[in-house]
Amino acid sequence: MQKRLLFNSKLLQITISRLCQHLIENHGDFSDSVILGMQPRGIYLAERIRKRLEEMLNTKIQLGYLDTTFHRDDFRRRESPKTPNQTKVPFIIEDKKVILIDDVLFTGRSVRAALDAMTMFGRPAKVELLVLIDRMYTRHIPVEANYVGRRVNTMTSQRVLVELEEQGKKDNIWLINETE
């Protein structure tokens, strides 16, 4: 197995600040915008984005966790069922601008499932996608992120490992080549 470092702690901090600046440019004071972190790993990035935005804007921003397990197109195709995570959306998203946040955009199927899952909480005015890593050229469905930390050209045999402090690890993001 070979690992190549894509982000260290300092670069991750700079990237998150840049993404937050971009969000502020498009959402202003966030009075009509909310954040939904996609379970399981997108919630850690969503929490960090919200914390940084609240520091920059000096205001509270609504954050929810969205689980897509029962909306996935492969839910019944697995040998063992996938264990669902908690959905926690303590607000209505009707007519709100929603920022979906996930750590890695790969095939786009999780995002499609998130769009389906979101409808239980209302009809948003607009939905945008923020990802830390966009694995280019790997889409199975036409999904594109509005805000991207870094675009990485990857092969199907590679994977991206996101390690964050919120998960009890040191901030690092790796591109891993699975070699035999």
UniProtKB/TrEMBL annotation:
CDD domains listed in its UniProt record: PRTases_typeI
Pfam families membership: Pribosyltran
Record has Oxidoreductase as a keyword: no
Keywords, ordered alphabetically: Glycosyltransferase, Transferase
Classification via InterPro entries: PRTase-like, PRTase_dom, PyrR_bifunctional
Keyword Lyase appears in the UniProt entry: no
Domain Phosphoribosyltransferase: start-end pairs: 11-149
Protein name: Bifunctional pyr operon transcriptional regulator/uracil phosphoribosyltransferase PyrR
Gene name of this polypeptide: pyrR
